[in-house]
Design a protein that fits this description.
Length: about 425
């Protein structure tokens, strides 16, 4: 699998100073080997190190190299699938427990930022904007569902109410959440890594795992060494690739693209998103955007199942931004990047055990900023002997994506179908 677009991101350009960790050299032993230094792996590593476990984290590139350090920074509520798909599999009461875990994931994120003094521009407030007036009744039904789940920090906004908050005439209303928001994801990821190291974990960057054994005594081998462990956590998500054959078909890497503008200044940005909230539309293929702490517009979307990246990503993305905010169609775009997120067939994260010693979680389907943290924590709980909450989530069944040479073309065709559906709905 390619690394997708690797232009320097805004997050890399504004990352907090941080320690670089040397590659693995030689053979070492650990209680737990963690594959991947993103939100999932670092969350598990932090919990386990705090509990006294000897933890070694292996990262193929650098901390937050994958989706954890490239995403839109939007902290979302619940699951991409919605509650109905989960309830259909697990029943009403257990589906409500899953939603409660998703709510806990946001509190976990907030707590870690405060506890470990992570400077990552955390801000609350989220607008789900509807592109068609016929979607307004759906907003009311969505609010009613969230109210029934005990999450009442929401408000349905009419078009005039939304236009007081958002300098765009494209949308016809919104659901506002007070309990969702946005932040600088790479700086959060770096903060998690620092906290894990302070708790005793060892991280090795530039240590791509070439081979693993997920059996009774798991191990992971790199080009320069090997980790022998009692337990293993697989947190590679879309970047795990073909390392573990049993997991390859469980998720599909989808490319998402993001741009940031030059700094626009406080007055101009206030006219774009008055209260600095995160925004996403409700299409199947989502546009999402927000303001950064240094007054840039960060705009993302244009998801693609194709492995072909645009030759000029900034100009590829500009028309999407201009459709929402024509008043900034000609501003300078200073950063443009892309990367993989992992989706599952039903848009519910996939987690489980490959053996009594090896745990995995992946496929957050666009909502991993919060969810990856709780899945990492629950894997740590299971390794420590308390598996009830992890086992609840692992009961969700998943269909594999079709494999072979037609895998990517089939999904690219599916993406075209949903673009047409968004346009006509």
């Amino acid at each position: 699998m390619s690394k997708s677009i690797t232009f320097q991101s805004y997050y890399q350009a504004t990352a907090t100073p941080h320690t670089l960790h040397p590659p693995l050299s030689g053979d070492v032993s650990a209680d737990v080997a963690v594959i991947g230094a993103g939100f999932t792996g670092l969350s598990a590593a932090l919990e386990l190190a705090q509990a006294g476990y000897k933890v070694v984290v292996l990262e193929a590139e650098t901390i937050g190299f994958g989706a954890s350090g490239r995403n839109g920074g939007q902290i979302c509520t619940g699951f991409s699938s919605g509650q109905q798909k989960i309830e259909a599999q697990l029943g009403r009461e257990d589906a409500r427990k899953c939603f409660a875990l998703a709510q806990e994931s946001k509190e976990l994120l907030k707590d870690r930022i405060a506890r470990h003094a992570i400077d990552c521009d955390l801000r609350w407030g989220y607008l789900h904007a509807i592109p068609k007036p016929g979607h307004f009744e759906g907003l009311k039904a969505w609010k009613a569902e969230l109210d029934d789940l005990g999450y009442t920090d929401t408000q349905v906004l009419t078009r005039p109410e939304l236009q007081e908050k958002l300098g765009s005439s494209l949308y016809h209303g919104a659901l506002r959440e007070g309990g969702a928001g946005h932040f600088h994801p790479l700086n959060y990821c770096l903060g998690l890594a620092r906290a894990a190291v302070e708790a005793g974990a060892v991280i090795h960057e530039n240590s791509r795992v070439l081979e693993v054994d997920t059996g009774h005594r798991p191990w992971a081998r790199t080009a320069m060494g090997k980790v022998n462990a009692k337990f293993m956590v697989l947190g590679g998500n879309a970047y795990l690739g073909r390392l573990v054959r049993k997991l390859y078909g469980k998720v599909m890497p989808v490319t998402s693209y993001i741009i940031t503008t030059e700094p626009l200044g406080q007055n101009r940005t206030k006219a774009l998103i008055r209260d600095g909230e995160a925004v996403a539309d409700t299409n199947f293929i989502v546009d999402y955007f927000r303001l950064t702490s240094d007054t840039r517009m960060l705009f993302g979307g244009r998801a693609s199942y194709s492995t072909l990246d645009p030759s000029n990503l900034a100009e590829y993305m500009r028309p999407r931004m201009a459709a929402v905010f024509p008043q900034i169609r000609d501003v300078k775009i200073e950063h443009a990047w892309g990367g993989y997120i992992a989706i599952t067939h039903n848009r519910i994260p996939d987690c489980g055990r490959l053996s009594p010693t090896t745990y995995y979680a992946h496929g957050y389907s666009g909502q991993g900023v919060a969810l990856a943290g709780i899945y990492g924590k629950l894997m740590a709980e299971a390794i420590r002997g308390t598996a009830e909450r992890f086992d609840l989530l692992s009961r969700v069944r998943h269909l594999p994506f079709p494999g072979g040479p037609i895998r990517t073309p089939m999904l690219a065709a599916a993406m075209l179908y949903y673009r047409i559906k968004d346009a006509l709905s």
